[in-house]
Structure formats: structure tokens, C-alpha cells
């Protein structure tokens, strides 16, 4: 294995680690967005009720603008994460997590668009001027009814009727409050169920991220072992080269000695023949 391959493998865990960090950040952003969406739904339910007003609508519209920007940011991050995943050839587990994030993004996008439509419908069907007119009409009718009762009946009968009317109004108010609280309880239960479902899905994503991190740790250990083995092999090769060099030097010295001895022998024989 070449050093180039080792460098490429060493870069993969870093890229995967960055992807895991982005995935965790996206999971938190989606969870926060879903929580803010639940709070906006509670405010939207107050449109057309006694709590409706200019300040409430301005608060809702400001929150809708803010959440629109947040949703666009989440969409951009998911898109960039997909590009990084394709370029780095991510594993099946990471692709599964990204798929779950895309599913969560689709759900919150649909819920957010539905909330905006409901708000626009309520805002158009119950204008502020209409609410003011209804309140003024009720006050005028109550005042006129009180004046007629005072003119037509004796004071004792009028007092009794007023007391009965107050009791009836109190009963209506209590009944209205009870129905309103029951509706709130039911809506809160539904919201809690939705939040629980979202938390379970987020927990599943975090479990997948944990498995992915563990897998990255195994990959890092494998690369570290390969680098260690390469260093050992390089050291052994250097030792073998040193031994071969020493052997070659000894062999060269022996060859020189043999050549000198042969030269001396040939010289002696030549001198003997000449003599």
C-alpha cells in the first residue's frame, strides 16, 4: 500500500466526523423548530377569541417571518449535507440518517405551511374591526336592556332580573371557560403526543449517530494499525539493506585479497620460469 492511499484513508474519518457534527446540529435545529411551531399553533388558536388583538397578530407575524428564515437555513444545511455525502461516498448508515433528516424536514415544512394557511384564513375571517364592532354591539345591547328593565318594572323586580341575568352570564362564562379549558387540554395532549413522536424519532437519529461514531473509531484504529505495520516494515527493510551492504563490502574485500594473492602467485611462477 502506497503512502498516497494512506493519506486518502486518513482524510475519510475527518470528513465523516464533520458530517456527524452537521447531522447532530441539524437534529437540534429541527427539534427547536418543531417546538417553536407548537408555540405558534397555540397563539394561532387565540385568533378570533377574546384574546385576539393587534399585538397578538404582530407577534404571530414576526414569529412566522423568523421561522421562515430558520426553515430556509435548515433546508440549505440538508442540501449541503447531501452534496458532502455524495462526494465523500458515505456509508449506508450515514445515508439512512440523512434520509430520516429529510423526512423530518418534509414534515415540519408541511406543518409550517399549514399553520400559515390557517393563520391567513383566521386573520381574514376575523378582522380587528369586526371584533371591536361585536364587542361594542354587545355592550350597547346590554346597556339598552338594562335601561328598558329599569323603566318597565319596579326596582325590586329589576334587581331580581339583573341578579338572574348575572347568574346566567356567570354560568355561560363558566361553561365557556370549561369548554375552553377542555379544548386546551385536548390540544395539549395532541401536542404532547406529537412531541413524543418527534423525540422518539430524534432519539433514533442520535442512536444511529452513535453507531456511526463507533464505526468511525474502528476505522481510525484500523488506519493506525496499518501505519504502525508500515513503519515496522520500513524499519525491517532498512535493517536488511544494511546487512546486504555489509555483506557486499566483505565480499569486495575478499575478492581484492584473492586477486592480490593470485597476482603474487603468477608473478612468482613467471620469475621462476624466467630464471
From TrEMBL:
GO terms for molecular function: SNAP receptor activity; SNARE binding. It comes from the Eukaryota. InterPro entries: SNARE, Syntaxin, Syntaxin/epimorphin_CS, Syntaxin_N, T_SNARE_dom. Residues 143-155 have a biased composition (Acidic residues). Residues 143-166 are annotated as: Disordered. SUPFAM superfamilies: t-snare proteins (SSF47661). GO terms for biological process: intracellular protein transport; vesicle docking; vesicle fusion. GO terms for cellular component: endomembrane system; SNARE complex. Residues 182-244 form the T-SNARE coiled-coil homology domain. The chain crosses the membrane at residues 256-274. Keywords: Membrane, Receptor, Transmembrane, Transmembrane helix. The keyword Transmembrane helix applies. Belongs to the syntaxin family. This is SNAP receptor. It comes from Saccharomycopsis crataegensis.
